[in-house]
UniProtKB/TrEMBL annotation:
Its EC number is 6.1.1.9. One of its GO terms (molecular function) is valine-tRNA ligase activity. It comes from Phocaeicola vulgatus (Bacteroides vulgatus). GO terms for cellular component: cytosol. SUPFAM superfamilies: Nucleotidylyl transferase (SSF52374). It is an enzyme of class 6 (ligase). Keywords: Aminoacyl-tRNA synthetase, ATP-binding, Coiled coil, Ligase, Nucleotide-binding, Protein biosynthesis. This is valine--tRNA ligase. The keyword Ligase applies.
Length: 107
């Protein structure tokens, strides 16, 4: 994808200071209220678990399932009671609009 035919696997290295997008997403509700470093604090007890999560159906595995697993692992409970799915905007071919498909508007 770089256009550099001479580029080899040896030329590549992983960023050492990077957090996976989906990892950080499921961490957010716990870390926001310092639930990792200070479990059982007043804020985490007040705000966690929440009632609802609103998301697109295309990220059930990437976000919703991982939030549930993290919730049970770190807080011993499900992080929300309900999941509401929004619709997905599609192109004229019925494909989900996304940057990776190149079928979305240029911001």
């Amino acid at each position: 994808k770089t256009g550099n035919a001479a580029l080899t696997i040896e030329d590549l290295r992983q960023d050492e200071d990077c957090l996976d997008t989906w990892f950080s997403s499921w961490l957010w509700p716990i870390s926001l209220f310092d639930g990792i470093n200070n479990p059982g604090n007043e804020e985490i007890n007040y705000y966690y678990p929440t009632s609802d999560l609103v998301t697109g159906p295309d990220i059930i595995f990437f976000w919703v399932a991982r939030m549930i697993m993290a919730g049970y692992e770190y807080e011993g409970q499900m992080p929300f009671k309900n999941v509401y799915f929004t619709g997905i905007v599609r192109d004229k071919l019925g494909r989900k609009m996304s940057k990776s498909l190149g079928n979305s508007p240029d911001p």
